[in-house]
Amino acid sequence: MNQWHPTSWQAKPAKQQANYPSQEALDATLEQLSLLPPLVTSWEIEALKGQLAAAARGEAFLLQGGDCAENFGDCNAQMITNKLKILLQMSLLLIHGLNKPVIRVGRIAGQYAKPRSADTETIDGVTLPSYRGDLINGPEFTPEARIPDPVRLLRGYGRAAMTLNFIRALSDCGFADLHHPENWDLDFVGHSPLADEYHQVVAELSHSLKFMETLGSGRDSDLSRVQFFTSHEGLHLHYEQSLTRPVPNRPGYYNLTTHLPWIGFRTAATTDAHIEYFSGIRNPVGVKVGPGMSAQWIGELTERLNPDNEEGKLLFIHRFGADKIGDGLPGLIEAVKRTGRQVLWVSDPMHGNTESTRSGYKTRHFDNILAELEQAIDIHRSAGSILGGVHFELTGDDVTECIGGARGLDEAGLKRAYKTQVDPRLNYEQALEMALAITRKLGRT
Ligand code: PEP
Ligand code: CO
Asked: b/e map of 257-276 (b: 16 or more CB within 10 Å)?
């Protein structure tokens, strides 16, 4: 077998890659990227791995969520804080309801590249390359916008750095202080039917906090900041490669664009370039698994992606659809058990439940999302395995993209604030409701 290297994936078939008009321009950009500082550190990555190991043992719970695709235009204070706020609020509900630490991982600061089902898009007889995310080309349906432009890689790196910088500043003090969860209230929280339930949990937590501090030695400064990790689909292998580096005092290579990169459902074939690339990095890695994946396939993935059988190293994020999970998931759990290796199981109840309305909106029904999640919990319970986390597409904004939820958003209501360029996200209220539903089903243990 050939020696692994950050570029060894280039000898394998790579799906879903951009077709750049100039190799020279791409190479020049990659050279620039390779000289820029990392976005995350190996210390953070190893800390996350340790926490994910706890989630795999059932001692912690992973909350991973954010946009389907971030776009460059949304790199602003309000969008970033709103996303942080909803993830912090959901995590409070989960901590309270599950009685365990919650690991917060955003689909943020790098979720700029998207796999597409077709390479081209045709409108009124005009065919252009598909939009592949802001890291590659523009969404506008013009030949100029759709040509992949390597300069976007630098802009993506810059946006990721700015986003991370703001997240780090917010997580470190003041804003993220558990003593002041009112900082996380979104403007419309007061009008939500869920507001009372949320505020009751916050009041109970504040009470417990005061109680602990009365017993202990005053204010615990650790509770004045939160840890927040980043993740994105590691789709654009040239981009990932350019920030994959050795670090001082630790063996191996780290992908330093993000803490937790994952492999999408469309690029998980064991012969693919993506598996080659991901098999050599030290980060924890996720793989989306779903309908059509055989026992042998997932067994091979387990061995390739967790060769040293490290705890917290490999996450299988299953995304079947409410009508398919019952048939598909038990076999995969058994196949992984047979390998004897450690994995963390995570439910993505979004991607198998996408549908289109008659008027052409891509949507998801809240009830189907919840039904898949509840089945996932039951299936893991009866298989004697652990569902250690959830993966959502959500936003802190008041969008109308998914149907249903406490406010009963219907098909006609979608057009009010349908903003996503790719997949439909849970809005703020639907996301909170989902967190409450998880705690009801998984209970306090
Ligand atoms: C996604 O997470 O946005 C995505 C494309 O998912 P999947 O690879 O599971 O289809
Ligand atoms: Co998506």
From this structure: bbbbbbbbbbbbbbebbbbb
Domain 8-442 adopts which CATH fold?
TIM Barrel (3.20.20)
The residue with tokens 């020279």 is 24
Between 195-215 and 77-98, two packed helices, what is the crossing angle to 10 degrees?
A: 70
CA of 425 to the centre of ligand 2 (A): 8
Q: Whose CA is nearest to atom 4 of ligand 1?
A: 264
Closest CA to 227 of 56, 60, 352: 60
**Whether residue 232 has its Cβ less than 6 Å from ligand 1:** no
Instruction: Tell me what pLDDT residue 198 has.
Output: 83
Q: Which pLDDT tens digit goes with each residue over 371-404?
A: 999 999 999 999 999 999 999 999 999 999 999 9
* Alpha-helical regions (H) of 216-270: 237-242
Q: Which helix (H) or strand (E) holds 429?
A: helix 428-442
Q: Residue 362 Cα, ligand 2 centroid: separation in angstroms?
A: 11
Q: Which residues of 343-359 are buried (b: 16+ CB within 10 A; e: fewer)?
A: bbbbbbbbbbbbeeeee
| CB 364 less than 6 A from any atom of ligand 1 | no
Confidence tier at 274 by pLDDT (50, 70, 90): very high
Of 107, 266, 316, 372, the residue with max ligand 1 atoms within 8 A of its CB, to mutate for a pocket test, comes to 266
Bridging pattern class, strands 250-255 and 260-263 = unpaired
Q: Are 404 and 365 in contact (CB under 8 A)?
A: yes
Check if the beta carbon of residue 50 is closer than 8 Å to that of residue 284: no
Per-residue pLDDT at 379: 98
User: Which atom of ligand 1 is nearest to 290's Cα?
Assistant: 9
Count the Cβ atoms, other than its own, within 10 Å of residue 73: 10
Q: Is the pLDDT assigned to residue 302 strictly greater than 90?
A: yes
128 sits in which H/E element: strand 126-129
pLDDT at 220: 57
User: What is the residue extent of each domain of the chain?
Assistant: 8-442
pLDDT per position as a tens digit, 310-344? 999 999 999 999 999 999 999 999 999 999 999 99
Strands 120-123 and 126-129: what pairing?
Answer: antiparallel
pLDDT of residue 212: 74
pLDDT digit string (tens) for 46-99?
A: 999 999 999 999 999 999 999 999 999 999 999 999 999 999 999 999 999 999
Q: pLDDT (tens digit, 9 = 90+) per residue, 157-176?
A: 999 999 999 999 998 877 87
